[in-house]
């Protein structure tokens, strides 16, 4: 069995915890909440335990049934990004071509990455320390 990536798993746990709190606040059992949402009770139980993420239509029904805003359910209740959202935003001054190159580089195997690194280093201009030597050679 494959493991879920960390970000979706963390989101599922967060969503389940918030849904459980909202259900308790509404004084509903899992069976009652599941019925209002249109899910089987065991499926709703998995959702609350953070073992699954709902589809978008199910998420909307969940919000309606529990009178819950989707923002806190997804962790968007403060000015800071939610804990489950760990994706780094690209640097503002980073050009699109650089972002595309980085996405491609992340897919390379270590050996391919090492070879490309050597090729890129060879394309760079010579270090400044060698400039005086070149000037001396031209003077002769």
Keywords:
disordered N terminus; DNA-binding; Cro/C1-type_HTH; 140 residues; DNA-binding protein; 8 helices; mainly alpha
Estimated share of beta-strand residues = under 5%
CATH architecture of the largest domain: Orthogonal Bundle
Overall 3D form:
elongated
Please provide the ordered H/E string of secondary-structure elements: HHHHHHHH
**What is the CA–CA distance across the termini?**
71 Å
CATH topology term of the largest domain: 434 Repressor (Amino-terminal Domain)
Would you summarize the structure shown here?
The chain has 140 residues and is mostly helical. It has helices at residues 6-25, 30-37, 41-48, 56-65, 70-74, 96-105, 110-123, 131-139.
Describe, in plain words, how this protein is organized in 3D.
- The longest helix has 20 residues, at 6-25.
- This protein has 8 helices and no strands.
- The radius of gyration is 26 Å and the shape is elongated.
- The relative contact order is 0.10.
- 60% of the residues lie in helices and 0% in strands.
- Mean pLDDT is 80; it is low at 1-5.
- The protein has 2 domains: 6-74, 434 Repressor (Amino-terminal Domain) (Orthogonal Bundle); 90-122, no CATH class.
- With 140 residues, the protein is mainly α.
- Residues 20-73 form the HTH cro/C1-type domain.
- GO terms for molecular function: DNA binding.
- Keywords: DNA-binding.
- This is DNA-binding protein.
